[in-house]
Amino acid sequence: GDWSSDVCSSDLQKNPEDTKKIPLNEHNELMKRCNPEKNDILYSKNGTIGITRLVDWEEKFSCFVSLCVIKLRHDIMNPNFLINYLIHFMWKFLYFHWSNLLHYHQK
Known about the structure:
Layout (H helix, E strand, L loop, with lengths): L2 E5 L12 E4 H10 L7 E4 L7 E3 L6 E3 L3 E4 L8 H28 L1
Parallel strand pairs: 1-5
Antiparallel strand pairs: 1-2, 3-4, 3-6
């Protein structure tokens, strides 16, 4: 059609069909900056930071600036391994910062 999906960080936990639609000409402009494809990793970098999602669909879509698209050489790294690492890293980061914050306020 004349519309395409536009995925942002708040969409990472939704079905791709349920995302906002944008005009095809706007989608084509966004695709010049970033071309997400199947088996890429989407990582939220604004708003709720650290949400990851494997692109497991074939349909073309564009990304809002709140997402980072990670492209891997699949002969070197399994995308599911990196997703699990990123999730683990984010929890360690949050735990470290929250525990320091709580310790600071207890003084």
